[in-house]
Structures are given as structure tokens and as C-alpha cells.
């Protein structure tokens, strides 16, 4: 264990103390041999400790150079801290200390020594936070070079980095090295991420041993912070809290860079456990915000050259606040920064300007000017004015920092600065020639939406590529050009422009130059990895028609193309692009080029007969070309053209789908567009060998109905469920073709894995095949009862996977779905929502729970047991009340509904059902109160629990209540009731064409109420032809009254007319049948 402790002292403290590049040097200079020479305890004490863990055998490293403790103590020029450290080592029996360890400890404790040796500490604070001269620092008047900026960045993120080159680690245990690196990542990361549980126990033991063994470093802030992390991970939260507080206090008294206060204080805010356990984004953001605020307000120490890097850290927080739409927190942050006068003016101005600009665009939005509401222009102008003033002030303070000028490029775009975008771009690169945010802002100012063009954007990028500054980041302007064009320019225009050979040649020149001139500039800079750049080069060449160059690149890349580069270049299918390049480079390139032209031509340019001829030609070429990628591309073209030609000729379009076409699917798993309206019917009687599809595909504004069978060439062995191909329809172009028909192959395995049925059900649900979706969901529930859960409630059901929302369906989508499947059990919150629909478990209930369609008495018995087990379970109380409601015991139902509400049941169903109970008891006034609550358009839970059908209509109980209120508004003989309804805010119920008779009935009722019985009778006669036979019987009494010239009124003991209509079919027979079939469209 001694060797492990010693190795950890060397590796952990120094590795975490130094910057990111330091970690790489440790690995290069370290030997994976177990043991070390850091501590100097006697062998007797070492024997008392348990043996260290066995490590993998490795070559022995040369012995480390040792220094005599006695000779060091003879020197008189060491400060007290160094003398105390040496004295502690000698007191514990040590006679020697490793030279590298002594050098590091001395550089940390003795500033003068570091200066004398010519190794000035990069983390030495230049001035304190309380120094008023911070407002007027002495900035350098020279431009910042790339190398200098990178060195400053490394210094800002490191401690003692200048000393690292002199350190040698001869004996470091590989296992200790791994743990030290993991701790370093946790300390240096912006957000702490959880690590493997088995990592922490040994780590905590070794850290405690280090703290005990080395008195000189037992109060080191980073050691205390690491102890806090390890203690929290081992669920010793009280110890963790103590360590975090001590670390925060010691940090303010030390010469560590103050940026570590963000991490240390953040852990203290989290109080230990949540730093590794709670990964809730909102909570982490709040902790991050408090940590950065603490750093700026109480422990900000940075010299003038570090102000840029401090702004980078603050800007990361501002961006995170923006992405999580925490606008109030962002505004509060700006107020806090404005009040901190000890912060440098440049930093304050940049932060205030950045926040103001974010808030301005929050009000304006990203659309065109005519889409911005008039009331939003005023706050946009106000915030833009503040941003312009702050950025201009920052530029006046220090023109050599390019951040302010780069921000003013975007300010000039909106007309809030007198100078042009070109002016501020030149000012920005005068401070740093490769400050790439300035290039990005300038390119954005040239997009067509802002009055520019793609040609201007390319000319700007080409100008800077031609400078060939491969010693800088300037050539990356070409990747910025591609990214911005694809993001902000019409797809057809961008694809056409990227196909030009001159664009491809310029991109190849830029990416080739960067590959041949690699940079090593520290951390957090643009990617210069060869594979990333090679992928960009190859894709640009393939799109620009440089096929031979592209083929060479594809050969070199193989299947290892960089995913980030493919995403930047918006590559839909890497396999198709590669196959096309090889086909156009083959000996049949001319024929393949003609096929490509036919495949990408519009319907007006090519006839179905021509496509049919090309199909035969594709088959012939597939026999003649040897390259497999080219053959796959030809097969794809052939099948696509064959499908289109057969469909156009009115033939039965059957598309075979075999394993070799698995690359057909779009890589991004294309989402359904609003224009796509598709349905799937699945035949699972035998095996899933056929899938009938009926899809509405948009093509240049025209709609086509496509019907075909997807045939599986093999038996799946499991009713087709293990092998499932999910069809997808997308408006995405296929190399310029009118539309794409693609398929995503999900699984091809006879043994299902966790989550497969859930995903299949989710895709089936997306295709509106709710029956299949429910079947797959139920199968997943049975396979993974602790992960999959479904929720059935009045009028809808929801599916969750590991408590994450999967999908939701309203009642119209699930009509009849319960007839076939056994999934119709209600949902319970018992077990924190983990209990599935198919298996609500009660210890005293030994048989399966009753389905929703069961009798009321059976459900009443079941939910009575569940509610008695946990009287505070609001869902159990609600379902118990609902069961009583079904049996007609409205008194008991009212009591139980109120209990559920008292227990926290906030869904509006409870209000609607309470109103229904009072209505059936004849208490119209009380019913009206609950209907108004249920239908309240401002109800806080309605939009959260249930989505809107449109701007006015809700689906579910609030809509049911609205229907009843609308009836009362037209038909109630009580004037006060109508007045009260008109005062309330509720969603207006919508009616489909087949329920238009309801509107006529409203008119007739209103006429009868005002005494015009003759007209009311005429209208009622006409509406009888529109309603069902069951509803006609209910209306006979109404007509009889009107024919005699009397208003139809229900007596105090009778049910209202709408209840009689609803009861013409049992109201509580099933959730999708709350109203008669003729009323299905209004809820």
C-alpha cells in the first residue's frame, strides 16, 4: 500500500495541479511499474500495512534522483513552509526525498525560488480582487499571436505548468494513474459527471492516507476538494461537506488560480452528495450559476492577460443560460455583475454586452422581421442599444482584445452601430488574426437573409484560405463557410453551390494544408485531427465532382469517417455518397453519369418509360462493375426508379427490401414532416412477413398516395417482432429527386434486447397504428417491468421508458384499441410510477387486476384495497372514486374525489367528474362551479398534462366540461347561469360536420327559451335526420313540448337533457365512450 500511496502523491497532486497538457506528459514519462519513491517511511511501518494490489508486470524504470533531507535543512534561504515540510519528513523517519517532488513543493511554497530559477509561476495572481487599480489595468498594446494566446490559455487552466517539463515520474502504478486522471477530469470539467462506483473506495482510502502521511500538504485546497468528491461518492456526505468547506476557505488563502473557486464553491453549494448523484440539468445549472457568481464576487484574481480567458468562462455560463432559456436568471446575473465594481471594466462591459445581446434576440426571435410582433421591437431595441454601448466601451479600453470587435460585427448588422461589419472585422483580426468568432460573424452577415449571397460568402472564405496561414486557425474559415451555408441557406441553393468544382478545390486546399501543417496549441481550440480534416476534404471533393480525389480519400477513410465532420457537411448517407463516387470513377463512368442525371431529374423532364429503360441498364452495369460500393449505389438507383416507374404506370408497386440495402436508410433517421400522413397495418397472424403501407408523400407541393407491400425474405422465428423494419416518409431530397422513400432497419435478431419492443411500439405509434403500438408496449412491460410503464387515464394513454416520456395518444386514436389486448388496466402511482399498467401489484390481491371495462363493483373492490393500503395516494383515491361513480353511488364518489384533491390530485378530470356527480344529483349550481373549474382555459395543469388540439380547443376533460357549459349557455332557462358562464374563460368546444345537428339543437333550444316555439320546432324537425336512432328517442320529448308551444324544461328530479343524451349509451362503459358515438368528435 505504501507504493500505491507514494505513486498517488506524485501522480494525483501534480497531475491535478497542472494543466491538461500536463496529463499527457505524465503518461509519456511514467512507467507503469508498481511503486514509487515519494514517501520516505521506514520499512517497519510499511510491513504493518496490507499488501498493495498486484499490477500488471512492466519494465523497471531507472531509479529516481534522491536528495538528502539533512543537507537540504542546512540551507538558510528556504522559507518557513519549506523548512516545516522537511522537518515533518525527518520526524517520520525519512532521510531522502525525490528531487522532482521537492522541486514541485518548493515551487508551490516559495515564490522567490521560482523567480530565481527563471520559472515564473503561471498561476501567480497579479493583483488582488480588492485592488481598485483593477479598473484600469495595463493591457499590452501589441496584437496577440496564436502561440501567445494558447500559452495564456494553458496558463489560465493550469497550475505550475512551467515546472512540469522538469518533473520525472519513474515509478507510477498504472491503476493509481487511472484514478488520478479521473479525479483530475472531475476537477477540471465544467460540470461534474458521475464515475464508476468501484472507482471511489480505494481512491478515498489512498487520499486519506496521503492527508495523514504528508503534514505539509494536508491542507492543500485541491487535495481537500478531491477528498470531498471521494467522500460524497462513498455516501459519506457529512465528511464531504466538511472537506468542501475547508477547501473553499483554504483556496482563498492560497495562491492557486481563483478559477478553481468555481468548482470548489460549486461542490460546497451542492453539499456533497448532489455533485455526483443529482444530474438534473436545471439543478446543475443553478449550482453552476452560483459557483461562477461566487468566483466573480468573492475570489476573482486574474492579471490583464487572463481577462480574456475569464470572459470565456463567464460566456460559457451565459450560453448555458440561453440554451436552457433561463432569461430571468440571465437578467439577475447582469445585475450582479454590474454591482461588482472590483471587477475589471473590460470584463464587466463584455459580460453585460453579451447578456444584453442575448436578451435582445430573445425578444426578436430568429425569424424574418415581418414575423416579429410589434410589441417585441421595443425591448429588442433597448437591449441592442445597451449591448452596443458596452461592447464599444470594452473596445476603447483594450482594442487588442478581439472579442468586443467581433461582437460589434453582429451589432452593426442590426443598425445599432455606425461602423460597417467590414470595419469591425478588420479591427478584430488586428488583435488576433485567427480569432475565429470574428470570421463566423462576418460570414453570417453575408447570408442571403441579411442582404448577402452564397457567392460573397465563398469569396470571403477563399480570400483567407489563399493567405495560406497554416500556422494559425485561419484556414478553418472553410469549415465555417460550409456550416453556415447549410444552416442558413435554402437546401437546393446550397447543394447546387457546393457542387461547383471551384468550391471543392478551395476546400481541398484548406483541409490539405491543415493536414500537412498540424498544430499543437493547447486546449479547447478548433479540431485539427487528421481524420476529421480528411473526412471534410473527401466529402467536399465528392460533392464538387472531384471524384478521383474523393475515391482516394474514401479508400483511406474506409468506414471510419468522422461523425462530427459528416454532421457539419450534412451528409444524409455516407454509403450512398461513397458508392456514387466509386461509380463515377469506374470504367463505366459515362453510363453511370447518365443514370445519375435520370435519377435526379424532375418528373416533367423524365417519363416513366425512360425510367423503366434505365432500370434494365442499372442491372447490366451491376454485373460489369466490380466495386461493391458502386454496385450498392446502382442497386439503390435501380430499385428507386423501378418503384417510381411502376407506380406512375399504375402497376402494383412492390419494393423488395433485403439485407444488402440496409444502407438505404437516412443516417439521421428522418423525422416525419407535418405533410406526411401515414398509416401501417401489420399482419401478425403467422409472422411479420408483410407490411401494407398507405402513405401521403409531398412532392413539390403535390400529394401522392403510394401503396405497396414490404416483403421480408426470411422468417423471424418470433412472430416477426424481433426483426422489424420501420418505414419512414420524409420530404428530404434524394440527390435532387422529387421525394425520398426510405426505410430504417431497426433490428434483425431472433433474440430481443431490452428496449426493442418499446422502440418498435414508438415507431408504430408514430404511424398512427395505435393497436400495434399498444401491443408492443405491453410486450415490453412484460419483459422489462421496472423500466417500461404505461398510463391510462380518461381519454388518453401515455408511455414512459425509465420515467422518460415516449408518446401520448388521445381518445380518438385509441377507439377500439382495448378490445383485443389485455393492457386495459388503469395506472397507479404506487412504486414511484414504476408499476406497469399490466401489473399493479397488491399483496392482498392474488389475481390479475380487473381491466377498465370490468364491472363497477369489481373495480370498486380492487381500488378500495389499494386506497386503504395508502390513504395518501391521490391516484388510488381518484380511481376509487371513479369506481364508485361507475356504480352510481354519487355521494361516495363526491367524498372520494374531494379526498383525492386534498391529497394533491390536480388534474382537471376530478373537477369534471365532481360536476357530473352533482349534476346527476340535481344540484345544478354546484355542478356549474366544478364545470367552470374543469374548463378553465387558464388552468395551470391543462397545458402541462394535455396538449392543445389548436389555439382554442383542448382535448380531454376540460373539453367535455366546455361542451356542457356551452349547452347550458344556449339552453339554460336560468338567466343567472348563462351570465355566470359568459363571465368565465373556457375553451369553446369544436364540432365536426357529422355532429352539426348539435349546433342546430342549440339554436332551437335558444329559440324555445325566448318563446319562438314554432321556429324551434321547425329546426328540431330538420335535425332529426342528422342524429342517431338512439338520440332521436331522447329528443321526442323535446319535440312534443315544442309542438304544443311549451318550452322543454327538465324538472328538479329529472336529469338534464345532455345527460339523457349521454346516457343513451352507457356513459362509463369505457373511457373512449364517455359520450355517444355521435358525439365522438367533440372531446
TrEMBL record:
Q: What is the name listed in the Swiss-Prot or TrEMBL entry for this protein?
A: Tetratricopeptide repeat protein
Task: Using the UniProt annotation, give all residue ranges assigned to the region (Disordered).
Answer: 25-64, 120-141
Bias kind Low complexity: ranges: 53-64
**Which PROSITE patterns did the record assign?**
PROKAR_LIPOPROTEIN
Q: Where is the composition biased (Polar residues)?
A: 28-42
